[in-house]
Amino acid sequence: MSIEREDLMICPARVTLDAAQMAFFDGLPTKAPSVQAELGCELEQGHEGSHAALGQQVDTTMWWIQWTLSASEINPYTWCPATHLPDTERRDDKDCALFNGHPGSHSSAKRSWQASEAA
Length: 119
Ligand SMILES: [Zn+2]
Ligand SMILES: [Zn+2]
Description:
disordered C terminus; three-stranded antiparallel β-sheet; 1 helix
C-alpha cells in the first residue's frame, strides 16, 4: 500500500473566512455545497504574491479568496488556460485547476495535488 502525496509542494498557508465572506458565497447562484470556513492555499509552495484558494464556481467564473498577512478579498477569475483543449468545454484532470494568471506552477489535479501516475 503506497499512497504518495505531493503535499510538500503546496503552500501551507490557510485562511479563515469571515461572516461577510461566507454570506457572499452563500448568496452565489450555485448548487454547489457551501464553502468551508477554513481553506488552504492551492498554489505552489514558495509562490509570489497573495495566497489563493478556490471558494466557489458559478458557470465559467471562479471566485477565489486571495489573502496576505494583513487582508483577504474575494475575486472573480476564469480558469487558467494551460492545457485547455480548445474544442471542448469539458475540463478534466489534465487541465490546470488554478485561476488565469496564477503564480507558481500549474496544478494538474483539482483540489488535491496528488500526482496522477497512471500515465
Ligand atoms: Zn500560498
Ligand atoms: Zn495554470
